[in-house]
Task: structure prediction
Amino acid sequence: MIKEVIATGVAHRVPSDLRNVLTSAPVALKAWEDITPLARNEWICWVESAKQVETRNRRLKRTSEQLASGKRRTCCWAGCIHRAKNHQ
Result:
């Protein structure tokens, strides 16, 4: 059974391509549900900030792999620019 509703971020909703990646990887989805809303927000924003389709696809794959391996936050990224706007 595919989970239809998954947890979102603070400033972002989960885009359909990320939802598909996560729901097709049970270990990554379990990790996703366990991280904080701010951490989910950062993963979502990182995926959505890709300017090219190829980059976005790599980030989608990397998100799933890294969550499944126990990584809770994105690496080497300044963070979601939207968080500061929503929490002032």
Observations:
- The helical segments are 16-23, 26-34, 37-48, 53-68, 81-86.
- The chain has a mean pLDDT of 86.
- The chain has five helices and no strands.
- The CA atoms of residues 26 and 68 lie 8 Å apart.
